[in-house]
Write a structure and sequence with these properties.
Layout: H1 2-9, H2 18-27, H3 36-50, H4 58-67, E1 76-78, H5 79-96, H6 103-118, E2 125-127, H7 128-138, H8 143-154, E3 160-162, H9 163-179, H10 192-201, E4 207-209, H11 210-218, H12 226-236, E5 240-241, E6 253-254, E7 257-260, E8 267-269, H13 270-274, E9 288-291, H14 297-311, H15 315-320
Antiparallel strand pairs: 1-2, 3-4, 5-6, 7-8, 7-9
């Protein structure tokens, strides 16, 4: 760590911790996941666990930030401040999960990741807002609690946020998939279209409040879709579905389950779905419904009704009505609009 710290202070290194290099190399085996939002979310889930941030509650993160008096979001933090705050975070995690958390390693790895995301030029400084965005995005909290917390960081004392301030938040958020080389499918590094989309959703008011921001985020805008998908990936990890995959015959299906809304009793497991495998007679553009938890009887009835309706729809209808999982943002680096 001392060599790393010295290197950061003299701005002479882009050194990665050996364990970080190992982690990045391991992410390559997820590149066969065809859908970028899922590919990115699965990489982030692996990163989140390696950094033990999946153990960090929002309240514990806030306590550490308050303890270090990190209230001025525009202020820069130097390496020592980042290390001190991370040490407080991981010391507490070690007390709660002593056999799971190696404090020096976690501090090194998390520092390494934050600098890779927010200090690519290795100036030895990152903004307080960037630090908070990174830590809160990957902590263990309800999705909407994360949205509320992050919005509050860029809102005025009266609880309103203008386009410039929202742009700062979205810019810091998009750096997380950008660092994994996954930015193109989320609208590229240009956050202007996303800011415009949010304020158009708010009927072009000069400022928005938290409730409107939350409503917009619930639509899973393209630039931010990786975050709700990360939560679904985490929820699906332990899910066991009483269904058989029509392609590889896995039963029960573990993880995500994809049920056809065109054919009765047609299910696909996540590895077949992500790699784009389909059984004879079932096209990729046919509607599917995703489950990250086992289905309820109400959902079974609803899906049955949809299959009945879709039985009478033509191939042309499905080609014209692809299901999109995010708000489209037109950019030069636009990703595949067919992604679900």
């Amino acid at each position: 760590m001392r060599e790393q710290l010295k290197g950061h202070e003299t701005q002479t290194t882009c050194w990665d911790h050996p364990k970080m290099t190992e982690l990045y190399q391991s992410l390559a085996d997820l590149n066969n996941v065809r859908f970028s939002a899922y590919r990115t979310a699965m990489k982030l889930r692996r990163l989140q666990k390696a950094l033990c941030l999946d153990l960090l509650s929002l309240s514990a993160a806030c306590d550490a930030l308050d303890q270090h008096n990190l209230k001025q979001n525009d202020q820069p933090m130097d390496i020592l401040q980042v290390i001190n705050c991370l040490t407080t975070i991981y010391d507490r995690l070690e007390q709660e999960h002593n056999n799971l958390v190696n404090v020096p390693l976690c501090v090194d790895m998390c520092l390494n990741w934050l600098l890779n995301v927010y200090d690519t030029g290795r100036t030895g400084r990152i903004r307080v807002l960037s630090f908070k965005t990174g830590i809160i995005s990957l902590c263990k909290a309800h999705l909407e609690d994360k949205y509320r917390y992050l919005f509050k960081q860029v809102a005025s004392s009266t609880g309103f946020c203008d386009q410039r301030r929202l742009g700062l938040l979205l810019h810091d958020s998009i750096q997380i998939p950008r660092q994994l080389g996954e930015v193109a499918s989320f609208g590229g590094s240009n956050i202007e279209p996303s800011v415009r989309s949010c304020f158009q959703f708010a009927n072009n008011k000069p400022e928005i409040e938290a409730a409107l921001f939350l409503d917009w985020m619930r639509l899973e805008p393209q630039s931010m879709v990786w975050l709700p998908v990360l939560h679904r990936v985490a929820a699906a990890e332990t899910a066991k579905h009483q269904a058989k995959c029509n392609i590889c015959k896995e039963c029960p299906i573990i993880g995500f389950r994809y049920r056809s809304l065109k054919h009765f009793n047609y299910d696909i497991c996540q590895s077949c779905f992500f790699s784009g495998r389909v059984a004879k007679g079932h096209k990729m553009h046919y509607p599917m419904v995703e489950y990250c938890t086992p289905t309820t009887s109400g959902e079974d009835v609803r899906d049955f009704a949809k299959v009945l309706k879709n039985k009478f729809r033509t191939k042309r209808y499905f080609a014209k009505h692809p299901r999109m999982g995010y708000l489209p943002v037109q950019t030069v680096l636009e990703g595949d609009n067919m992604e679900t």
